[in-house]
Amino acid sequence: MRALPDGRESGQDKGGPSDLVRLAGRARDDLLAERGRWPLWVPALLGLGVCFYFWGKAEPPVWLGPAAAAVPGIGAWGLRRAPGLSLVLLALFTVAAGFALAQLRTQLVAAPVLERNWGPAALTAELLDSEPRTLGRRLYLRPLEMPGLAQEDLPARLRVTVTALETAPAPGSLLRLRAALRPPSPPVLPGAFDFARQAYFQRLGGIGFAYGTAEVLAPPQDGGGATAAWQRWWAGLRQTIAGRVAAQLEGQAGAVAVALITGQRGAISEATRADMRVAGLAHLLAISGLHMGLVAGCLFFFLRAGLALIPGLALYHPIKKWAAVAAAAGAFVYLNLVGASIPAQRAFLMIAVVLLAVLLERRALSLRLVAWAAVVILIAAPESLMSASFQMSFAAVTALIAAYEAWDGRRPQYREARGMAERLLTYFAGVAATSVIAILATGPFAAFHFQRLALYGLLANLVAVPLTAFWIMPWAVLALLLMPFGGEALGLVPMGWGLEVLLGLAGTVAAWPAASLQAPPMPDWGLGLVALGGLWLCLWQRPWRRLGLALILAGALSPLSFEPPSLLVSGDGRQAGLRDVEGRLWVGWPRGSSFVLDSWARRAFASQTLPWPALGEGSAAGMSCDPLGCLYRENGWTLAVLRDPRAAADDCRLAEVVVSLEPLRRQPCRGPAVVIDRFDLWRQGAQAVWLGPEGPVVRTVAGQQGARPWSPYPARAFGND
After folding, report:
1. 485-523, pLDDT tens digit by residue?
2. 3-state secondary structure (DSSP) of residue 208
C-alpha cells in the first residue's frame, strides 16, 4: 500500500464504512423516517401468511398456526426494549397470524361435500335464494333429504339450475325436485382456477341441474333463528325487486339493470359478458366499491342539496352529518340487497369509514382507511385474498389514493380551474387519469387470472364511467326509492336508456380490431413481485419508493419464462388436446365442454383451436391419426393418445408418452417413460405434459391442490376407492 498525503494508506479505508454498510445505514434511516407508514404494511404481512397457508401442499396440524404466532409474539413482548429486534418479531407475528387465521377459517366453514355424482333422484330441500338465468333459474338450497346419504353427510348448501322454472317460490319454501348433482369441479388443468376451493369456503357441497320443474311442498316457515329469518327476508325482497325490474326493462338492458340493483348476474348472456370483458368494462357488472360509492354518493349529495334549500335547517343544523348518516343507512340497505358478498362487504366497509370520517370531521380518504379495511376483510374471510376481485379492487384503490396523496401535495402549485369549459376539461382529465392509474394497477392481476388485456379499456371507460356515475346509478337509486309507491318506472325507464348506450358502447369497442390481447400465463412468483413492487411504490413516501418500479417490471416480464404444455387431458377423460410448436391447440373432441376448451386455450397460450387431423391425414404439426388414436412428435419424443386400448401394444413400443382415455389395467404398458390412463385421471385429475429436451414432465391437478380439505384426490391416491 502507498501512503496518502494525509498519512492514511490507500486500499481499504478502515475508518469509513463499506458500501454495503453504508447502503444498510441509508435503508435504516429511510425506514425510521417513514415510521408513520409502518402500520400500512400490516395487511400485507397478514396476506403473506394467508398465502403461505394456501400455497402448502398438505393441511397443517391445528396447532401450527397458533404456535407460530405465539413464539414471535411472546418474543416481541419480552424484547420490547430493543426496538429493532422487536419490530422484526412483530412482523413475523403478523405473518404467522395470517396463517393461523386462514387455518381457523378453513375449520370453521368445514361442511360435507359430495364425494361422487348423485342422482338423478328426488331431492327435498329448503330454498335459500334464487337468481334468474338466461334460461330458467338457479336455486340455492339447503338439502333436507337425499336418498343414499345420511343426515350427517348432507351438504350445507347446493346449487341447482332449473331450466323449466320462470318464477321462483318464496325463499324458505320447502321444495321437491328430481336432480342430478356432482361435487364442485376441481381445476380443469394444473394451475387453473380452483372452483372446488371457492365452493368449500362458500359451504357449497354440490352443484347440478333438475329434470322438469320444482314442486312446492310447503310455504316458508318460521324457524332457524334470527339470522335465518333475516336472510330469508332479504332474499325475498331481492327476488321481488328483480322481478319488478325485469318487468319494466326487457332484454339485456333489463338483465344488467337487475345485476346493478340486486347483484344477480345470471340473466346476462355470455355474448354481453364477452363484449363487456373485451371492452374493459366487466368491472361495471360486478358490485364493487364503484357501485357502493355511487349509491352512497347519490344519497349524500341529493339529501344534502335538498336540506340546503331550507334556510332554517342549513344555517342551524349539521345537515352534512345528517346526509352522511342517511348515506350510510342507504349503503347498508344496498349491501344486503345485493347479497352481502365479500366484495360488497369490502366496499361497504370502506364507504362506512369514509362517512364516519365525515361525521368526525376527519380526512375521509387515506391509505390507513384502505389498510384497516383490508385487515378486517382478511380477519373475517382470509380466503378472499386469493380471489381476483380482492386483488384487483385493493390494487386499484391503493394506487388511486397513493396518486391522490402525491397530487394533493403538489396541488397548490397549480391554478384552480375556472369557467365551465375549463372545469369540464379538468373533470375529463381527472377521469382519464383515474382510468389510466386503475388500468395500470389492475392490468397485471387481470393478466394473471384471465390471460387477457383490454387494449381499448381506457377509451371505453372515459365514456362508460361518467355515464354510469351521472346517469345510470342515480336513476337506479331513484327507482329503488319510488318502488314502495309503485313508481319505479320513473327511474327504470331512463336507466334503461343509459344501459342501452352502455351495451352499445361495449359491443362497438369489442368489435374493433385487436380489442383484446391474449397474454401468456404469469407465474405465481411474478404476481408476487408485482404486488410487492406496487405496495413498495404506494405505501412509502421517500425516494426509495422508486425501487418498487424495478420489482413491478421484473414481475411484468415474468411471463417470458412461460413454457406451454404439449399435452392436456381433462380429468373426466373426455377431452385431450395437443399444442404444436406453432402455438396451435389440436383438440380431439372440439364439441366438448366449451369452458374446458377456453381454459385450455388461455392457459396454453394457444393461437387457435383446431380439431385433430382427419383420419389417416398428416399435418404440419407433426401429428397423424387413425381410428385407434393419434401420434405426435416433438423434440425427438413421441406422444400417443389412444382412443381404443387395442392400440396400446403398438403405441407402447413406439412412444415415450402414452395417454389412454380408457383403463389399461388388463394391458400393462411398461415401455414408455410416462403412461396416463383413465384410472390415473380419476385418481389425480386433469394432467398436463411438457416434452422438453431432457424428457417428459407431468403435472397433475392433485399435485397442485395437495392434500387439502377441498381436494377429492388425496383419498383416491392412497387407495380409498
Report:
1. 999 999 999 999 999 999 999 999 999 988 888 889 999
2. strand
Q: How far apart are the C-alpha atoms of 656 and 671, rounded to whole Å?
A: 7
pLDDT in tens, 406-429: 877 665 555 555 667 776 777 677
- How much of the chain is in helix, strand and coil states, percent to nearest 5? 55, 15, 30
pLDDT level of residue 326 (50, 70, 90 thresholds): very high
Q: Is the pLDDT confidence value at 655 over 70?
A: yes
* pLDDT on residue 108: 95
Please indicate, yes or no, if residue 77 is contained in any of the structural domains. yes
One domain for residues 259 and 401 = yes
DSSP one-letter string for 600-643: HHHHTT-SEEEEPPPTT-B-TTSEEEETTEEEEEETTEEEEEES
- Alpha-carbon distance 97 to 91, whole Å? 10
Mean confidence (pLDDT) of the chain: 86
Q: Are strands 137-145 and 118-132 parallel, antiparallel or unpaired?
A: antiparallel
Q: Are residues 376 and 449 in the same domain?
A: yes
Residues 528 and 674 in one domain: no
Q: Which of 347, 272, 359, 305 is nearest to 474 (CA)?
A: 305
pLDDT of amino acid 621: 62
Q: How far is CA 706 from CA 104, 116, 677, 684, 698, in A?
A: 18, 19, 21, 10, 15
Q: Which of 85, 108, 131 represents a domain boundary (last residue)?
A: 108
718 pLDDT above the threshold of 50: no
Q: How many residues does the chain have?
A: 721
Query: Which residues partner with 698 through β-bridges?
Result: 689
202: domain CATH number?
A: 2.40.50
Pair 604, 583: CB distance under 8 Å: no
Domain boundary among 83, 108, 133: 108
Segment 316-325 shows an average pLDDT of 89
Q: Read off the pLDDT of residues 522-554 as tens digits, 9 standing for 90 and up.
A: 999 999 999 999 999 999 988 889 999 999 999
Average the pLDDT over 382-399 and give the result. 90
Q: In this model, does residue 15 exceed pLDDT 50?
A: no
Residue whose cell numbers read 396440524? 61
Calculate the alpha carbon distances from 65 to 164, 376, 461, 711 in Å.
48, 19, 44, 21
Q: Give the CA-trace dihedral at 530, 532, 536, 538, to 10 degrees.
A: 60
Q: Which of 233-242, 443-452, 527-536 has the highest mean pLDDT?
A: 527-536
Tell me the C-alpha distance between 470 and 498, whole Å: 10
With a CB cutoff of 8 Å and minimum separation 6, the contacts of 411 are none
* 351-383 exposure pattern, b = at least 16 Cβ within 10 A, e = fewer: bbbbbebbeeeeeebbbebbbbbbbbbbeebbb
Q: Are residues 375 and 444 in the same domain?
A: yes
Number of domains in the chain: 5
pTM of the model: 0.87
Per the domain annotation, does 572 fall within a domain? yes
Same domain, 59 and 202: no
Looking at the structure, do residues 297 and 438 belong to the same domain, yes or no? yes
Three cell numbers, residue 325: 348518516
User: Quick one: which H or E segment has residue 118?
Assistant: strand 118-132
Mean predicted confidence (pLDDT) in 295-312:
89
Which residue is listed with cell 381445476? Answer: 187
Specify whether the CB–CB gap between 457 and 439 falls below 8 A. yes
Alpha carbon distance 206, 7 (integer Å): 83
Residues paired with 132 in a beta bridge: 137
Judge if 537 and 506 occupy the same domain: no
Residue 99 lies in a domain: yes
Domain that includes residue 85, residue range:
37-108
Kindly state whether residues 367 and 497 are assigned to the same domain. yes
Whether pLDDT at 346 is above 80: no
Q: Which residues contact 583 (CB under 8 A, 6 or more apart)?
A: 564, 605, 606, 607, 608
Residue 266 in domain: yes
pLDDT of residue 202: 92
